[in-house]
Design brief:
4-stranded parallel beta sheet, D-amino Acid Aminotransferase, Chain A, domain 1, globular, alpha+beta, Rossmann fold, disordered C terminus, 27% strand, Dna Ligase, domain 1, 12 helices
Length: 428
């Protein structure tokens, strides 16, 4: 069968490879000429995943049997439009896909359904400093329709907001940007599977991030189990409310929550598999192969199964970490081999987003990730020892023989995160 996959980057690489292994022909759509997923695809069209009409034309050209994406927000809407045009299977109808990929609609649905979120408003390009004279600071501004922390800034003055608007708008196709009150909080991510409108939570992880200057929320790790696991009943009730409010009937659901002194509020909602290699760690922890489910349903191969039909109880005694590592600026001459990394204790999976010969720039957002390690241990201490050992082995060498990998401070016993993450200081 032929499956059109939107996006050929590292977030979609697992899906492209898995579909090919299952014997399907992959029609890859990615505006880069040589994306990582190209080597596994049967066909490749150099087209933007945002271009709805061209993606519909591609689907017709190849007579695809299904269309999907994963690990990225905006193509979710394109998938829904292609599926509607060709009457292909789809988890989300077009209105729902629009709601989970546009922050203006997303916020309006939350407000209308009493789903807790931070105070917010929208700004146009015509906004002036005097329009913000009653706004409490700090605030966060975001594009309505972007991803990867592009154009997301924490700001402390009205002048800084107005001065930053052009850059935030540059990452958007919308005529407004979102302005939110800054909420000091932990962030957690919830991955769930929805069947017949009923969500089943698969994992709850702590999303660890670093900030520097005005750039915030750049994720460097996901940790399981969450330090807020005890609040699962409250989280479960909130996920059910989100599913009803957004009219999500089936498929993957990814929710980002903020946990602070004023309680749990919803940051964002997405109708996709997450972008922190959830396709690897969810099956490892639960036995539910979320990627297989998405591929098969998208091709109409079989019915959607509820998560409870195939999962075991999540491994509550297992500790898992997804390390999304970064590197300093420089030209790469060599890297520790993936074969070496995958043989290290606790390593389930490893990969690079960079290659020898590439010149790395200063970190600006989450797209600057140099690679990832998915690691597990039977105890928190064992996991942390393995993480520390992996970072001692991990090397991205520049022309001066220096290791460009930004090393997190050593994990301490009894701590679910490094004492202090290094990238913030390293990227000023």
């Amino acid at each position: 069968m032929r499956l059109q996959i939107l996006g050929g980057g590292n977030n979609q690489l697992g899906a492209i490879r898995r579909a090919a292994e299952m014997g399907h022909e992959v029609v890859l759509v990615d505006y880069f000429k040589n994306p990582p997923g190209r080597i596994y695809a049967t066909f490749h069209e150099v087209v933007s995943t945002f271009d709805v009409e061209k993606n519909i034309d591609i689907a017709k050209k190849y007579g695809v049997d299904g269309v999907m994406t994963m690990g990225t927000d905006q193509p979710v809407y394109t998938v829904a439009r292609v599926a509607e045009a060709l009457k292909l299977p789809a988890f989300l109808d077009v209105p729902t896909a629009r709601a989970v990929t546009n922050k203006e609609i997303m916020k309006q649905i939350m407000t209308a359904n009493q789903i807790p979120t931070v105070p917010y408003r929208f700004l146009t390009k015509a906004a002036r400093v005097e329009d913000l004279d009653k706004i409490p600071f700090p605030v966060v501004i975001k594009p309505l329709d972007s991803q990867g922390q592009r154009g997301v800034f924490k700001l402390t003055t009205a002048t800084a907001v107005i001065d930053s608007l052009p850059e935030t708008f540059s990452f958007s196709r919308a005529d407004k940007v979102l302005l939110e009150s800054y909420y000091r909080s932990d962030e957690i991510t919830v991955s769930a599977w929805v069947d017949k409108g009923v969500p089943a939570i698969l994992t709850i992880t702590d999303r660890e991030s670093f900030s520097f200057d005005r750039n915030i929320g750049i994720c460097y790790a996901h940790e399981y189990p969450s330090r807020h696991q005890r609040r699962e009943p409250e989280i479960r009730a909130l996920v059910h409310s989100i599913t009803r409010a957004f009219k999500i009937k089936a498929g993957p659901l990814y929710v980002q929550l903020l946990v602070g002194e004023q309680g749990i509020v919803v940051n964002e909602v997405a109708g996709r598999i997450g972008g922190a290699h959830e396709d690897i760690f969810i099956p490892y922890l639960t036995g539910f192969d979320i990627l297989d489910r998405v591929i098969n349903f998208s091709l109409g191969i079989d019915a959607v199964l509820a998560a409870g039909d195939q999962t075991r109880t999540a491994r509550v005694n297992e500790h898992l970490s997804v390390q999304l590592f970064f590197a300093k600026p420089g030209k790469i001459t060599s890297l520790t081999s993936l074969e070496t990394l995958r043989k290290l204790p606790g390593v389930i999976a490893a990969g690079y987003n960079v290659a020898a010969g590439q010149t790395l720039e200063t970190i600006a957002n989450a797209t600057a990730r140099a690679g990832y390690l998915v690691m597990a241990g039977t105890t928190e201490r064992a996991l942390h020892e393995s993480i520390n050992q992996a970072f001692r082995a991990l090397k991205i060498i520049d022309e001066q023989g220096q290791n460009l990998v930004i090393q997190p401070k050593a994990y301490r016993e009894g701590s679910s995160q490094p004492a202090k993450m290094g990238p913030g200081a390293a990227t000023h």
